[in-house]
Amino acid sequence: MNRMQVSMSMWKNNRWAISTAALLLILWEILARIIRIEHILPGPVSILRCLWDLRGTLLIQQMPATLVAVLAGFLLSVLIGVFCAILMDRSPVLEAIIYPLILLTQTIPVMCITPLFVLWFGYTLGARILAIILGTFFTIAVNTYDGLRLSRREMLELMDTYGGNSRQIFREVKLPTALPNLMTSLKITFPWAVVGAAVAEWLGATRGLGYYSKLMVTRMNGPAVYASVFLLTMIALAGIALIKWIDRHYVVWRNEI
Amino acid sequence: MLEFKKVTFQYEGADHPLIENLSFSIEKGTFTSIIGASGSGKSTIFRLLNGLEHIRSGEILLEGKDISGMKNFCSYMPQNDLLLPWSTVEKNVCLPMRIQGVKKAQQKEIAARMLDLVGLGDVADKYPRELSGGMRQRVAFARTLCAGSDLLLLDEPFSALDYLTRISLQEWLLDQWMKLNKTILFITHDVEEALFLSKEIYVVADRPVRRMERYEVPMDYPRTREMLIRSEIQELKEELIRKMREGDERIRKVRGPRLPRKG
User: Fold this and answer.
1) What is the rounded CA–CA span in Å between residue A240 and residue A233?
2) Cα–Cα distance, B255 to B249 (Å, whole number)
3) What average pLDDT does this structure show over A198-212?
4) Are the CB atoms for A188 and A39 separated by under 8 Å?
5) ipTM of this predicted complex?
6) Burial class (CB in 10 A: 0-12, 13-18, 19+), A85
7) What is the DSSP track for B146-203?
8) At the fourth CATH level, which superfamily is domain A44-256?
9) Cβ distance A207 to A123 under 8 Å?
10) What is the distance between the alpha carbons of residues A124 and A131, in angstroms, rounded to a whole number?
11) Is residue B43 a contact partner of residue B187, using CB atoms and an 8 Å limit?
């Protein structure tokens, strides 16, 4: 398929979503022009204009800070989540210990506990990373654990007949079997990582898109608030697109397990 | 020579042993089939050999030595090819060698040789999903050979294939066996398959399995399908089917009637 055909097929697949979004944007713009209260409801044109005017501040000063927190927090969350999944898969005793604990972490509202992290770590990256981990690692751990348990008994027995030890069985069979589940959990949790970073920046940071949007709220600058939110959404969408691309190109055995 | 000496085995939680004082032996370099109705316990014999289950009493000897302390003395090929969908054909074939810690260069060399042997040297870089059912079974056979043992345990390896692929793979397997000088123990419930391939056939027809009746197939190698229509082979075929039916009835008496399968 050449580029033209790819574009055509993308348009065909998403034409209803794109048309609806375009219609909503037009309606939004019309409504904004009727209401004419910019700090409450700025229109899309005004937001885009603000985005352009503040491009230096938003893209060079604020966005990198948020990106660092999102990427570091998400990466650590994946590592911790996968590690917990491996431990739970290793032994029923470890599962009995770990599962209730990680389930408990899910009952804590991130919004409420993040101020505590700020108290512990101050206005640092550490507090934001902790908030992201708390919001995402449970889903990663549970999905990966389920994936590890999907390994076919016959496949594990075959490895046994070859004399495979538990490390080899994990590397050759269990981990690849669990990868599709892990990728699904990454797609689900990446937007949460962005939300977690923004919330943590709202509650305690000196830089970042969350911090900036809060600052702009206090200054009643509606378009700048929306511009920050727009960039946060773009980070989440770009992350999901990247994870989907990796999934489609490298985890192609999803339907063969 | 492989020897079962008064072997008894019982699954955990079962009320009675599945195998009781079973003795039989298989000569080195032969092609032997074990046939029996579904659930007769023939696959359990393989599970005892490849270490997935452990005998309760008795001995299993290979060349006079107890197999309980031995490693890699047999290679197991299951009913489904069980190829790793995330690995190329070459990496799949290398799997047993990777487990055994064989050096990478040597793995590649042996895998290439085995793939050439099974006539699939040109698909080394492909993934299992790109192969037909018959090709996948041949890859699985190459992987079994790469485990490096002289005793091959093939558990209904062609049962999931269509008829034409199955008979062409039977001919191919016989050809491989004659070249390789390996001992093959083959499980099937297809009497014609057992007759075409084997020098001797054991029938599992007891519950618990106390003895297996042994039949020698009166055909020389190399074999052709035309040989199967000989009257003595047809008579043997009828006899084997009769034995299997009797066995099936005995098993059903112990286990209860077989439930109809869904679909």
Assistant:
1) 11
2) 10
3) 91
4) no
5) 0.86
6) buried
7) HT--SEEEEESTTTTS-HHHHHHHHHHHHHHHHHHT-EEEEEES-HHHHHHH-SEEEE
8) MetI-like (1.10.3720.10)
9) no
10) 12
11) yes
Lateral strand order in the sheet of B65-66: B19-26, B2-9, B57-62, B65-66
Model confidence over B180-193: pLDDT tens digits? 889 999 999 899 99
Domain B1-73+155-263 adopts which CATH fold?
Answer: Rossmann fold (3.40.50)
Chain B residues close to A155, C-beta within 8 Å: 82, 84
3-class secondary-structure state, position A192: helix
| Nearest-angstrom CA–CA distance, A178 and A171 | 11
Question: E strands of chain B, at which residues?
Answer: 2-9, 19-26, 31-36, 57-62, 65-66, 74-77, 151-155, 183-188, 200-204, 212-216
The pair phi, psi for residue B38, each rounded to 5°, is -60, 135
Q: What's the CA dihedral at A94, A98, A100, A104 to 10 degrees?
A: 170
Locus of tokens 């509606």? A222
Q: Which of A154, A253, A257 faces B78 most closely, judged by CB atoms?
A: A154
Mutate to test the interface with B, among A155, A161, A169, A181 (most CBs of B within 10 A): A161
Q: Do A253 and B85 touch (CB under 8 A)?
A: yes
Tokens 């590890």 map to which residue? A148
In degrees and rounded to multiples of 5, residue A105 shows phi and psi of -60, -25
Q: How many residues does chain A have?
A: 257
Question: Nearest chain B Cα to A249, which residue?
Answer: B86
Q: What is the pLDDT of residues B69-127, one digit of tens each?
A: 788 889 999 888 999 999 999 999 999 999 999 999 999 999 999 999 888 999 999 99
Domain segments of chain A: what residues? 1-36, 44-256
Interface contact flag, A159 B51, Cβ < 8 Å: no
* CA–CA dist A97, A112 (Å, integer): 25
Domain ranges of chain B: 1-73+155-263, 80-148
